[in-house]
Amino acid sequence: MEKEDKPEAGDPTAASPFQTEPPTAAPKADHSSDHDALPIDSNLSGNKRAGDTPDDPAPPAKRLRESALRWSLVKCSLTTKLSADKRTMTCLKIPGDTANSVMTTTPAEHFSVRVDCQGTTENEANTDLWVGFCRAGAFQPNGDTKGRFCKLLRPHQAATEGDIEVRLDDGDVLSCHYDRAGGRISFSKNGVDIDRSYVDVDPDDRYAVVVTDCHGVSLTLVEHDD
């Protein structure tokens, strides 16, 4: 099985651990092509993202409904609190150099999360928030989860070269789309595609997952008519 290279904590030059997926613990996962899946930008004029500038048109109003998906009590960090209906996850105080992760109980090819709270800003070094898909065997509750993720930035947070990311504010909705047949994972903000996606993704079962190192982050699973 291939050796997994992980960046050192606090090393700003280390590659993002969320851009590619390593093999899972399954013995036959050595030949996974997930390492070859690269993000593409279908908007080649300046990496513009939906909602990043005042000139972007306001997205049409969408009616949010209760999602059928639920966060898992089993696949959940001890410092993550789930609501009674298991649709809302909230990060409690996180020990240094660790992160919170939570996964849904069932696989999904589409899901949406509403940003209820982006968390505290008391530690600017701990503001990472990633939402996307992972395979069941790749989930780790301590934050080492690997998968296909979109990084959620605060409205004025600086972008990172090479990452798939989008700026969101409280109340915004991020939708994640997994085209299993087409081998593509894409993302939309408030119903508007952000023009960044992963391609050549293996057609495995994938689960909705959140990984963050920020205290107070709160996200709710919703249905969004993208």
Automatic annotation (TrEMBL):
Annotated Basic and acidic residues bias: 28-38
Gene3D superfamilies in alphabetical order: 2.60.120.920
Transmembrane segments: none
Residue span of region Disordered: 1-62
Protein name: SPRY domain-containing protein
Organism: Achlya hypogyna (Oomycete)
